[in-house]
Design goal:
- The chain is mainly alpha-helical.
- The chain is built from six helices and two strands, in the order ααααββαα.
- It has a two-stranded antiparallel sheet with strand order 1-2.
- Helix 2 packs across helix 4 and helix 3 packs across helix 4.
- The longest helix is centred in the N-terminal third of the chain and has 33 residues.
Length: 160
């Protein structure tokens, strides 16, 4: 039987460490699957992250804005934007708020590419099984959001 009372810190820490231990391999496995598909769809993990961010917000953003939101370096995001530009997945447009920092905008080709990838992933995720309930998924998200909020940002992240 599962106890529904809050865990004391000395029990909570080890249990949450188990979650981290599962998340790492899961993330790397999914990343490898996306990279494996890359020759067919042109989406590396980095380009995918940029396209997904732009699709999620529905608005053009600067490289620094994207980098902050994804918690990645500006330099890495700039390289991914350059890759996406070469594939016509994004376009640059003038930024009225800042002359030297263009806005990155998702193109129709980019939207089609990220939506196709998401559809394939949703199909695959739909076959996970395990009789998972909406309540269990909501609980998982609740726990992960608390874990994310509790992990301090490292020095230098504000300079991204």
């Amino acid at each position: 039987m599962v106890d529904n009372s809050p865990l004391p810190p000395e029990q909570l820490g080890p249990r949450l460490a188990e979650v981290y231990a599962v998340l790492g391999p899961l993330y790397r496995r999914v990343a490898r699957l996306v990279e494996h598909d890359s020759p067919r769809n042109g989406l590396s993990i980095g380009v995918r992250a940029v396209l997904e961010r732009l699709e999620l917000t529905g608005a053009a953003e600067t490289v620094p804005q994207i980098a902050r939101a994804l918690e990645l370096s500006r330099q890495f995001v700039q390289r991914m934007v350059n890759d996406a530009l070469e594939q016509d997945f994004v376009a640059l447009k003038p930024n009225p708020a800042h002359r030297r920092s263009s806005l990155v905008e998702l193109t129709e080709e980019g939207r089609a590419a990220i939506n196709a990838l998401q559809r394939r992933e949703h199909d695959a995720m739909g076959r996970v099984g395990g009789d998972l309930t909406d309540a269990e998924i909501e609980t998982t998200l609740h726990v992960l959001r608390h874990m994310l909020a509790a992990v301090p940002e490292t020095e230098g992240e504000n300079s991204r």
